[in-house]
Specification:
CATH architecture: Up-down Bundle
Strand content: under 5%
Number of domains: 1
Number of helices: 7
Distance between the termini: 20 Å
CATH topology: Four Helix Bundle (Hemerythrin (Met), subunit A)
Structural class: mainly alpha
Radius of gyration: 16 Å
Number of strands: 0
Bound molecules: fe (ii) ion
CATH class: Mainly Alpha
Helix content: over 70%
Shape: elongated
Amino acid sequence: MCEYCGCQQIPVISELTREHDAVIAQFALVRQQVGRGELAAAADSSRRIAALLGPHTAVEEQGLFPLMADEFPDHIEALQQEHRQIHTVLAESRHLVPGDPSWPARLMETFELLREHILKEQDGVFPASLSVLDGDGWARVEDVRARVGSAPPFERDHQHAHSHAHRAALSEGDT
Ligand SMILES: [Fe+2]
Ligand SMILES: [Fe+2]
């Protein structure tokens, strides 16, 4: 985690990190719902994640990543490819509960990918951004955020499990 490098002092990085935390908390909820066979609830939670990732991914892909692609081309390309993979699976439950019996397993695999993806950003791109972006660069990222906005915050029940879920999902790596 990039708690000590100083990148969390940058408002746009701090907001991206808070969104990661919210996604990880929601991910823990989806895992419980899938475990209980509550697929409609899991689809609903997945839609919340997709709603949050919309502007989040736009800030990364339209703001932060283009400014880092010269220096870290392979890393950025891999992260963008993962965005597409995650989006494809989340889109399956955009309007309904998928009838495909393999969907719950595919969803859980996708969230494992998303968790790894978040770690890569927080251990790699975010700390590295400090040495790559200048004031104009940060202003460009902030412009993208201002344009795309932020998803509404999750309901309080979902936020409640944040600290436990975050620890369990990121530190222990349990599945
Ligand atoms: Fe990302
Ligand atoms: Fe991210």
